[in-house]
Amino acid sequence: AVCTTLLRTVPALWATQAQQRWVSSLPMNTVVLFVPQQESWVVERMGRFHRILEPGLNFLIPILDKIRYVQSLKEIVIDVPEQSAVSLDNVTLQIDGVLYLRILDPFKASYGVEDPEYAVTQLAQTTMRSELGKLTLDKVFRERETLNTNIVHSINQASDDWGIRCLRYEIKDIHVPPRVKESMQMQVEAERKKRATVLESEGHKEAAINVAEGRKQAQILASEGQKAEQINNAAGEANAVLAKAEAKAKAIRLLSEALAEQNGNAAASLSVAEQYVSAFSKLAKESNTILLPSNSGDISGMVTQAMAIYGSLAKQSSKKIERVTPVTPEWAMEKSEDPAPPAQ
């Protein structure tokens, strides 16, 4: 009956957190005590704080000394219950997380707060709601690491007086309303369609650029080919003109040499007579109208007239050569070591 009465008088918080370390039964004062590793026992003497027992062998005075708190120095993992929070764009979210903490000062953890684990859990929930209110829905999913860091920093600022250090906070899951989830899915599909359209347009753009570049290169090559062809044609025509000029000059040179020889005038007369006869043979072949001199039948007269013209031209050319050719004085010839080449 006494036990039943005690259970009924126990606060509801103690019943829900029966697995927490600070609710466990306290060790009795047996004068000689062995404290386990990674634990700190807080001892009170006559109701006041006396000292903290370190791991190992310890001695206490019976009746006067009492073990009041047992603090674990290990890292503690606390499951933060799911809570609702409103983002900056007025979207209600359901978020739960995991909190990792450790007790650094057993004295502050024992006398600074009544229930350190419950206090840190409530602080984590309130900090989470305040931090989510600063972010929009899209940033909540993208900046989870930043959100966790801000929550840990805020918890450590408030829990310094409790002797507790928050190591890290991790968000386990984020639940959004069904309608918001559908809109997010539609947004994702629209974003994918946009990317596909952009990629397709970029493909068309690159294809058009490649086609234009190919046409440009083809026109450049064609113009270069035409240029090379014109250069080759011009070079060929120039070579042909030079070859004709050289052949004509050679023929004139040979003809002049032949005329300078003995009986050259007779050979010239024979050539003129042959050309005269061949010219008469072509008369009236291309046209019916013919203009003839009055003495066309006098071949000897025509040859004599042609040779007279040739003789007068030869005399004039010889006079011009004599005027142009400079006369070198004898004293200049004696001083010059290298004689000048003969004039052609």
UniProtKB/TrEMBL annotation:
<dbReference type="GO" id="GO:0007005">
    <property type="term" value="P:mitochondrion organization"/>
</dbReference>
<dbReference type="InterPro" id="IPR001972">
    <property type="entry name" value="Stomatin_HflK_fam"/>
</dbReference>
<feature type="coiled-coil region">
    <location>
        <begin position="228"/>
        <end position="262"/>
    </location>
</feature>
<comment type="function">
    <text>Mitochondrial protein that probably regulates the biogenesis and the activity of mitochondria. Stimulates cardiolipin biosynthesis, binds cardiolipin-enriched membranes where it recruits and stabilizes some proteins including prohibitin and may therefore act in the organization of functional microdomains in mitochondrial membranes. Through regulation of the mitochondrial function may play a role into several biological processes including cell migration, cell proliferation, T-cell activation, calcium homeostasis and cellular response to stress.</text>
</comment>
<dbReference type="InterPro" id="IPR036013">
    <property type="entry name" value="Band_7/SPFH_dom_sf"/>
</dbReference>
<protein>
    <recommendedName>
        <fullName>Stomatin-like protein 2, mitochondrial</fullName>
    </recommendedName>
</protein>
<dbReference type="InterPro" id="IPR001107">
    <property type="entry name" value="Band_7"/>
</dbReference>
<keyword id="KW-0175">Coiled coil</keyword>
<feature type="domain" description="Band 7">
    <location>
        <begin position="30"/>
        <end position="188"/>
    </location>
</feature>
<dbReference type="InterPro" id="IPR050710">
    <property type="entry name" value="Band7/mec-2_domain"/>
</dbReference>
<dbReference type="GO" id="GO:0005743">
    <property type="term" value="C:mitochondrial inner membrane"/>
</dbReference>
<dbReference type="Pfam" id="PF01145">
    <property type="entry name" value="Band_7"/>
</dbReference>
<comment type="similarity">
    <text>Belongs to the band 7/mec-2 family.</text>
</comment>
<keyword id="KW-0496">Mitochondrion</keyword>
<dbReference type="Pfam" id="PF16200">
    <property type="entry name" value="Band_7_C"/>
</dbReference>
<dbReference type="InterPro" id="IPR032435">
    <property type="entry name" value="STML2-like_C"/>
</dbReference>
